């Protein structure tokens, strides 16, 4: 439910109404805009009579929100959210460029790639320390040693690190050592993990599940936000369809859909979307053209010998060419690199 307040209402009267609504068992989220003030009500609003609210002389009107996600809903938060990570931002005019290898393999590899992608223009470093794999026999990552190597790469380059969490038992370590905590596609509906992440204050990059609808995806964000952490970055990384030629099917329509439904920023992962390195270039360009707030791309110094997902990784030189070709596309849609 949304309560629209009349322009010019004194703050004391807004506070009084807020206290009355809170006393009825709902959480009140005020949104103060230049020309509009609204109160977003979260919780069980079924017992609150619309006419009781509208009887208040300061209320313009009451609107009901049909979608089950409230905190992620653009109606509650009309302005786009910008997530700040140190001096970097995700969701503003400048595109967030997240790049690095699928998995951390060695100090030389991760530090070398970090230096290359920073030189090219990336402002975040991605790298998997813990790797969820379909096969139990596949490389599972260097785990805690991998985290230490990521920290070394950050110290050498200054790039904030983005890496995936697998277990709620590691939250304390990730909150201490990681700049953006990634929730992978397989854990998008690991609700106990999401609840625990809601208690942190670190930005969360939430990847879309393999077969998740947009509403299910936003409801997973809602789990985190309901715990108090509203620094969420959504990541479209392709969904499972009947097509077998590509690893997944990149849903570019999700970008404008998210922009309409939610205030949260959204980045696109063209690497996992198809599993083919030569598709990264055109899909990255398409994602920027339709409004993505950033890209997360797998870059490896030696893709042919990568321990994980080499077939979808590009070399630093290819990444450099892509970044240059993205500049005019970004400018055409009012963004910049």
Radius of gyration: 21 Å
Counting H and I runs of at least 4 residues, what is the number of helices? Answer: 11
Q: The biggest beta sheet, please?
A: 8 strands, parallel, barrel
Oligomer: single chain
Structural class: alpha/beta
Question: What is the tally of beta strands?
Answer: 14
Strand content: 15-25%
**Order of the strands making up the biggest sheet:** 7-8-9-10-11-12-13-14
What string gives the helices and strands in order?
Answer: EHEEHEEEEHEHEHEHEHEHEHHEH
Helical residue percent?
25-40%
Coarse shape? elongated
Question: What would the average pLDDT be, to the nearest integer?
Answer: 94
Distance N to C terminus? 38 Å
Low-confidence stretches: none
Topology, pairings included?
Layout: E1 2-5, H1 11-22, E2 27-32, E3 37-42, H2 50-54, E4 59-63, E5 83-85, E6 88-90, E7 96-100, H3 107-120, E8 124-126, H4 144-157, E9 161-165, H5 171-177, E10 180-183, H6 191-198, E11 204-207, H7 214-226, E12 232-236, H8 254-261, E13 266-268, H9 270-274, H10 277-289, E14 294-298, H11 316-332
Parallel strand pairs: 7-8, 7-14, 8-9, 9-10, 10-11, 11-12, 12-13, 13-14
Antiparallel strand pairs: 1-3, 1-4, 2-3, 5-6
Helix pairs in contact: 3-4, 3-11, 6-7, 10-11
What does this structure look like?
The protein has 337 residues and is α/β, with parallel strands linked by helices. It contains eleven helices and 14 strands. The strands form three sheets. The protein has an eight-stranded parallel beta barrel with strand order 7-8-9-10-11-12-13-14, surrounded by six helices. The chain has a four-stranded antiparallel beta sheet with strand order 2-3-1-4. A hairpin with a 2-residue loop joins strand 5 (83-85) and strand 6. Helix 6 (191-198) crosses helix 7 (214-226) and helix 10 runs parallel beside helix 11. The two termini are 38 Å apart.
